[in-house]
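I am writing to request your help with a piece of structural work I have in hand. I am sending you one protein, given as its amino acid sequence and as whole-number tokens for its backbone shapes. Kindly check, if you would, that the fold set down in the tokens agrees with what the sequence suggests. You will find the record immediately after this paragraph:
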Amino acid sequence: MLFMAFSSTYVLQLGLLSCDWHSALTSFQLFNAMCDRYE
């Protein structure tokens, strides 16, 4: 449930930041850190 919420939020952010690869990469790193924390 929690992962689904983070996943949908990440997909939304990726869509908004698709033209800014640096920001998208930073968001991806933050997303991975959150996944590791909740695993």
